[in-house]
Amino acid sequence: MTVTLGTTSASKTVDLGPAVELVSKEEGHRQPLAPEFVSAEDFSPLEVAYDFGRVRREDIEGGPNNIWRYKKLLPVPSNVEEIPNTEPGGTRLVRADRLAKALGLKRVWVKDDTGNPTHSFKDRVVAVALAAAREFGFEVLACPSTGNLANAVAAAAARAGWQSVVLIPKTLERAKILTTAVYDGALIAVDGNYDDVNRLATELAAEHASWAFVNVNVRPYYSEGSKTLAFEVAEQLGWRIPEQIVVPIASGSQLTKVDKGFRELGQLGLVEASPYKVFGAQATGCSPVSAAFRAGHDVVQPVKPDTIARSLAIGNPADGPYVLDVVNRTGGAIEDVSDEEVVEGIRLLARTEGIFTETAGGVTVATAKKLVETGKLDPDAETVLLITGDGLKTLDAVEGRIGPKATVPPSAEAVSKALGF
């Protein structure tokens, strides 16, 4: 759809495809498409509403092997694939039989998003945010980040020829700092945790009208990028929805949008609208949503993060209450796991399926194991685990725990002896 509105510079016509308006999550107040993220009516988050028209499987299957094959389901321009971007998506869905056996599940699929351009799912959401930001007339791409988003924003801005401003906690993993700085944008380390960084970003967004903070002032569009995980999983399964899916929780947006993606596919008749359960995964050192679920609450009490899973270390998750809604509605559950369990989850996935995940993926695998042990995951149901980032980003999590089995002189006899032959 094409609409006309005021932007940071002057009125212009914007093309955001099937997107028609913004709707508040609490009371359903509607307003025109704009770079806004909170409803002035009920102060709840805004999300994108659509008029999809007719969308056919063959339209999607004829598209490129990236997220733009789903452009008719996203708030992006009709020619989005023609504009320089990182072209994320199209990542593999791996049938993980050895992992399934180790977990005590009948059939497991791993959605391996380590294959994205900066090796995490954040490339998806940033690509959608950049496309919308361009239409709204912004000139700088910015974000507060726990690491993966920093990489994605810096890379996407470089590819588009934009300036980037990235704010990170100074305690971020060294690998994520380097893999952001290499794109030569403005990388700023802040003396504080992610929630401090996020508050600072909100202040800066109000002061700099030309800066598009992907997870602040263009958040409604940014968050829609996570739907593409649901779209790809369903298409890769032969156009069907899995019975169970386990999703890591940081802000909670990814989990809610995966659910939204599945529901949209069903509403459009692209898949059979079959029941499914959504499960959430957190690290115990930052588990406010898990704690709320366990206590039966519908609100989330903020916490101070203390976990090696820094990419999930958001103590005051914006979408926490909506995660609880999704999990309760679908009959799922939320669990949390210790840092030791996170590391074992990383190693378990690596030794069974040859996939090296960062700490967030370790949280997902370890939580799946705990959910099976507590009887919350159905062992006979088809299960998908979302692995959202590459282990090369969080080497410090396994450093000192793994290494050579032995150090030997250069002789076959020494090798055989070390191996016990």
TrEMBL record:
The beginning of the lineage is: Bacteria, Bacillati, Actinomycetota, Actinomycetes, Pseudonocardiales
Kindly give the Pfam families that the UniProt entry links to this protein: PALP
- EC no. given is 4.2.3.1
Is NADP set as a keyword in this record? no
Q: Name one GO biological process term.
A: L-serine catabolic process
Does this UniProt record's set of keywords contain Lyase?
Answer: yes
Any GO MF annotation of the entry: threonine deaminase activity
InterPro entries for the chain: Ser/Thr_Dehydratase (IPR050147), Thr_synthase-like (IPR004450), TrpB-like_PALP (IPR001926), TrpB-like_PALP_sf (IPR036052)
Which keywords, in A-to-Z order, does the entry hold?
Answer: Lyase, Pyridoxal phosphate
Please list the cofactors this protein needs: pyridoxal 5'-phosphate
Say which enzyme class the record assigns. Answer: lyase
Q: Which residues are in the Tryptophan synthase beta chain-like PALP domain?
A: 88-389
Q: What is this protein called?
A: Threonine synthase
- N6-(pyridoxal phosphate)lysine found at: K122
Q: Which family is annotated?
A: Belongs to the threonine synthase family.
